[in-house]
């Protein structure tokens, strides 16, 4: 028998294809091979074998079987399978030819148009590919899945807004339980920053599939991206309870627990994710970050080394190298740390002024454009290196508007005045300055200058603005900054609720000044409106600044004021053991700002527990000496 005209043969082919649809590709392939033994030239059996081989990833077999089928019976669907198999093998032009035959044979068949468009896109003929996809959509206007295919094409072309419009149309057409299109819409909305819409739509998916762990996990991931940490934890915990958790779910749960400050539970989640997917670079990177926060730096470094080794040249490897750099810096291995710290450039993207080459640290006649790249605290910390650059080349320093007046008003300080006076250093708020021959980031300067440990300290910021002190009233005037930006994902580990400072605020004889932008707490003198020069003027009239790890601590340190820093367990690399020196009484102080005294959390407890000890230490030090 060479043809499948018999009802028995047709039924057996249909049974095999049914198994294929149910995901039983290997069994379907075996059944069809048995059928072919009795009908070696039957095109329907050959095509069914091609489909099963394609599902198994055996594209060479699939192309062979489909080619045999198409030679004896040129049905469009046979050419579609042949073309898709050739495309999977990387043979784009032969695939295009086979699929073009399918389109000519069945111009009204959307599947032929879709496959032909895929081949055209692989050949870089994207306008033609888009036309085929849109024609497929026109031919079957009520099918939501075709909208999804078109949206994915537009997304690959970088046309995100158009893709979202197509997905919105598809969503109106989709069946209530069709979550694939909806989930893709959620991911794209989150990508463009439409997080409220993404949260709303992912909640709809969760409601459609209330018992589906993937729906709960995806909703939790979107909530985490929106900073709604408690809700994210609830959904991710629910996903874990609903079914065997995936590495992706556990990874997101670990990130959420870490952001909430529960490092112990985060460690459990990351460890299980790593067990399920030991070669996943993202899991390794996140787990390494957590281990670093737990003070297990060598274990973290081992994970980063592994990612660099197994994924060389990838963005994951660059992230691992950057993270490894922060480990080295935390331990005071500055030469290694600054080298790996440069990997952040690949992670964060290019500096402004692509027309300028990167400065290599050598002496130069043309001006070097120096700019920041992250927050104000980083800018202030690395500002101390600018005079050393000015020794090698004239400098144009790009300063954030909130810092510009303060930097200009500091030019009479010894570290700056000769460079300002000679014109070797100029300050601007725009990176469009003329006459620059190269550019560099402030954070790259230790590496470019070949410096190891931080240079010896002298105050390098000072405001001429008068302070707000009223010395007719006795007692210490102490400024307090208890919180950073709430938009920072891990702010709960850095910031401290004001009511947790009760033991400190109860110390008698102190006049409290707010260094917190926004609403002034009861019993505090307000922080005047203004820029960093205004704030520096306030600090100049204070006896002490108490701060969490924010730009305020860097500003006070750079001005040379005494600072007591509340430091989370593990802490940022710049406050760790490798970045410390001893104060007059043996207390830990910052190597970067000797006026900064450090009060550490003692264990990786939840924030409301972990802050009790350092806050108690601050209260005791205030009672004992006033300044410590």
TrEMBL record:
Q: Which domain of life is it from?
A: Bacteria
> What are the alphabetically sorted keywords of the record?
TPR repeat
Keyword Transmembrane present in the record's keywords: the answer is no
The UniProt record lists the keyword Cell cycle: no
Q: In this record, what's one Pfam family?
A: TPR_16
Which InterPro entries would you find in this protein's record? TMTC_O-mannosyltransferase, TPR-like_helical_dom_sf, TPR_rpt
GO-annotated biological processes: protein O-linked glycosylation via mannose
- MF terms (GO), sorted A to Z: mannosyltransferase activity
Extent of the TPR repeats: 247-280
Protein name as it appears in the record: Uncharacterized protein
Q: Which organism is it from?
A: Acetobacter oeni
């Amino acid at each position: 028998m060479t043809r499948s005209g018999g009802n028995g043969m047709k039924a057996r082919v249909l049974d095999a294809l049914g198994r294929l649809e149910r995901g039983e590709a290997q069994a379907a392939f075996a059944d069809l091979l048995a059928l072919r033994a009795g009908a070696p030239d039957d095109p329907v059996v050959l095509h069914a074998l091609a489909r099963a081989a394609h599902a198994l990833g055996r594209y060479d077999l699939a192309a062979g079987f489909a080619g045999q089928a198409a030679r004896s019976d040129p049905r469009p669907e046979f050419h579609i399978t042949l073309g898709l198999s050739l495309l999977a093998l990387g043979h784009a032009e032969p695939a295009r030819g086979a699929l073009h035959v399918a389109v000519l044979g069945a111009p009204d068949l959307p599947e032929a148009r879709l496959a032909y468009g895929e081949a055209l896109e692989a050949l870089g003929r994207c306008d033609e590919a888009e036309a085929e996809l849109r024609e497929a959509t026109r031919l079957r206007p009520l099918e939501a899945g075709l909208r999804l295919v078109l949206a994915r094409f537009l997304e690959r072309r970088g046309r995100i807004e158009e893709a979202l419009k197509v997905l919105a149309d598809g969503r109106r057409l989709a069946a209530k339980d069709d979550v694939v299109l909806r989930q893709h819409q959620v991911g794209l909305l989150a990508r463009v920053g439409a997080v409220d819409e993404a949260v709303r739509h992912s909640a709809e998916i969760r409601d459609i599939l209330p018992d589906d762990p993937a729906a709960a996990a995806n909703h939790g991931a979107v909530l985490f991206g929106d900073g709604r940490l408690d809700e994210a934890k609830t959904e991710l915990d629910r996903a874990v309870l609903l079914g065997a958790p995936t590495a992706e779910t556990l990874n997101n749960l670990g990130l959420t627990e870490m952001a909430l400050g529960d490092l112990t539970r985060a460690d459990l989640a990351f460890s299980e994710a790593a067990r399920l997917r030991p070669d996943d670079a993202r899991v390794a990177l996140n787990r390494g970050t957590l281990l670093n926060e737990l003070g297990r730096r060598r274990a973290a470094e081992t994970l980063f080394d592994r990612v660099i080794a197994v994924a060389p040249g990838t963005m994951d490897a660059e992230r691992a190298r950057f993270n490894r750099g922060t480990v080295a810096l935390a331990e005071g291995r500055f030469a290694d740390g600054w080298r790996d710290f440069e990997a952040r450039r690949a992670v964060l993207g290019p500096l402004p002024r692509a027309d300028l080459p990167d400065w290599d640290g050598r002496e130069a006649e043309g001006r070097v454009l120096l700019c920041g790249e992250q927050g104000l605290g980083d800018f202030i910390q690395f500002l101390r290196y600018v005079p050393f650059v000015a020794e090698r080349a004239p400098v144009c320093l790009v300063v954030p508007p909130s810092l510009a007046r303060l930097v200009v008003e500091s030019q009479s300080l010894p570290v700056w005045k000769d460079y300002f006076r000679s014109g070797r250093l100029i300050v601007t708020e725009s990176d469009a300055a003329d006459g620059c021959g190269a550019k560099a980031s402030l954070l790259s300067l230790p590496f470019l200058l070949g410096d190891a440990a931080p240079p010896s300290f002298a105050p390098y910021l000072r405001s001429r603005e008068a302070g707000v002190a009223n010395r007719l009233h006795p007692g210490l005037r102490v400024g307090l900054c208890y919180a950073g930006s709430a938009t920072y994902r891990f702010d709960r580990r850095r910031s401290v609720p004001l009511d947790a400072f009760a033991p400190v605020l109860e110390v008698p004889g102190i006049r409290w000044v707010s260094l917190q932008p926004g609403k002034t707490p009861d019993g505090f003198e307000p922080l005047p409106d203004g820029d960093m020069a205004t704030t520096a003027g306030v600090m100049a009239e204070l006896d002490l600044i108490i701060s969490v790890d924010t730009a305020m601590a860097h500003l006070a340190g750079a001005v040379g004021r005494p600072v007591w820093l509340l430091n989370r367990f593990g802490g940022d690399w710049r406050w760790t053991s490798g970045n410390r020196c001893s104060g007059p009484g043996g207390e830990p102080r910052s190597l970067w700002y000797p006026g900064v005294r450090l009060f550490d959390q003692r264990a990786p407890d939840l924030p409301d527990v972990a802050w009790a000890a350092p806050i108690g230490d601050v209260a005791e030090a205030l009672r004992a000496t006033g300044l410590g």
